[in-house]
Write a structure and sequence with these properties.
Blueprint (H helix, E strand, L loop, with lengths): L1 E5 L4 H13 L4 E6 L11 H4 L4 E5 L5 H11 L3 E4 L6 H6 L2 H21 L3 E7 L26 H20 L3 E6 L2 E2 L8 H10 L4 E4 L5 E3 L1 E2 H14 L4 E5 L4 E3 H12 L6 E4 L14 H7 L7 H14 L1 H9 L2 H9 L3
Parallel strand pairs: 1-2, 1-4, 2-3, 4-5, 5-6, 6-11, 7-10, 8-13
Antiparallel strand pairs: 9-12
Helix pairs in contact: 1-8, 3-5, 5-6, 7-9
The chain binds nicotinamide-adenine-dinucleotide and 2'deoxy-thymidine-5'-diphospho-alpha-D-glucose.
């Protein structure tokens, strides 16, 4: 079995590469990644020592390169993680989100059609469903919830999902889609809530909480997302969408306070800043379908996962310190100074 993992130098893609190399040591894994600001080859250092793993630098939107890769490698399965993934950046500059997330997906599926594959899997997000009110804890996103996006990022992911389904219906491409809730864990890029708060707290810098910190996210340990995708690509039904989430909803402020507690830092570091435009209030996944059809359940409880994550950032300071010392400083300045 040969699997193409796109975006494998990013947060979830790299965790998936390591998960698959360990779980299926007989599989060949090829990763294509453009190494944007979010991609980091040092993340794949250990994988690169494994003869069953190969890395190719390039964009999924580069048709010529992608077609050549498919012709040479003859993939059985394609798992598309490659994306621009940060909501705040999509508010600043939507265009690249449309290019990578929509047109890149199209290029990959065109290559799948031409060269043939057993499965094309699109890694999507719960953000395609929009948000839920804070005062209706009885409501959850199911696979039947209408698409109703808020940000340029989520609109680009939803567009890609629609295109994936169109390629299935029109061309018979064997596709699946997964829509997961917020992930956390090792190699999470420091622009995102949990690693940003860990890095700032360790540097005794203010922790910028948007609005009142009341927005709710449904956190899942990244390895549980990987195990769900592994099940879907092997046993999921073609043409189906699977929601992935572990019923772990928390208000942002509670997540931030927990991070501070784990690090033994003062809550005085918390600073409330101007809210994100169009800020989704609450995400909450109903994972009944993947549980009942594929037997998937998350293995890591948030209390344990957050401890492991904080410890990982303490043990791997050089990984994130290098990131936040470079171009990231300009990003941080632009997004957070005078906010
Ligand atoms: P990330 O930003 O950490 O990583 C994205 C990776 O894609 C990077 O390595 C980057 O270099 C690469 N990339 C970007 N543009 C590319 C291009 N044109 N060609 C090839 N590679 C390119 O993102 P992530 O958090 O790991 O998210 C991975 C996927 O999972 C995305 O599709 C995202 O929408 C989805 N998702 C993320 C979460 C989450 O909580 N992080 C939850 C649900 C779904
Ligand atoms: O739900 C899945 C989505 O989760 C993925 O599709 C996205 O790729 C991923 O980035 C994530 O999106 P969010 O916008 O939920 O994640 P983020 O870490 O950016 O923010 C989480 C919450 O924390 C959100 O309510 C905004 C808030 N926040 C974020 C940052 C970066 C803050 O209060 N302060 C911050 O500095």
């Amino acid at each position: 079995m040969k699997i193409l993992v796109t975006g494998g130098a990013g947060f979830i893609g790299s965790n998936f590469v390591y998960y698959m190399l360990e779980k299926h040591p007989d599989y060949d894994i090829v990763c294509i990644d453009a190494l944007t600001y979010a991609g980091n080859l040092s993340t794949l250092k250990t994988a690169l020592e494994n003869p069953k793993f190969k890395f190719v630098k390039g964009s999924i939107a580069d048709r010529e390169l992608v077609f050549e890769l498919f012709e040479n490698e003859k993939f059985d399965i394609v798992v598309n993680f490659a994306a621009e993934s940060h909501v705040d950046r999509s508010i600043e500059n939507p265009e690249i989100f449309l290019k990578t997330n929509i047109l890149g997906t199209q290029v990959l599926m065109d290559a799948c059609r031409k060269y043939g594959i057993q499965r094309y899997h699109q890694v999507s997000t719960d953000e395609v469903y929009g948000d839920l009110p804070l005062d209706r804890p009885d409501l959850f996103f199911t696979e039947e919830t209408p698409i109703h996006t808020s940000s340029p990022y989520s609109a680009s992911k939803a567009s890609a999902d629609l295109l994936v389904m169109a390629y299935h219906r029109t061309f018979g491409l064997p596709v699946t889609i997964s829509r997961c809730s917020n992930n956390y864990g090792p190699y999470h890029f420091p622009e995102k809530l949990i690693p940003l708060m860990i890095a700032n707290a360790l540097n005794d810098k203010p922790l910028p909480v948007y609005g009142k910190g009341e927005n709710v996210r449904d956190w899942l340990y990244v390895e549980d997302h990987c195990s769900a995708i592994d099940l879907i690509i092997h046993n999921g039904r073609v043409g189906e969408v699977y929601n992935i989430g572990g019923h772990n909803e928390m208000a942002n402020i509670d997540v931030v306070k927990l991070v501070l507690k784990e690090l033994g830092k003062s809550e005085e570091l918390i600073t409330y800043v101007t809210d994100r435009a169009g800020h989704d209030r609450r995400y909450a996944i109903d994972p009944t379908k993947i549980h009942s059809e594929l037997g998937w359940l998350p293995a890591t409880k948030f209390a344990d996962g957050i401890k492991k994550t904080v410890q990982w950032y303490l043990d791997n300071k050089s990984w994130w310190e290098e990131i936040i010392s470079g171009e990231y400083q300009n990003y941080y300045e632009k997004m957070y100074s005078n906010r």
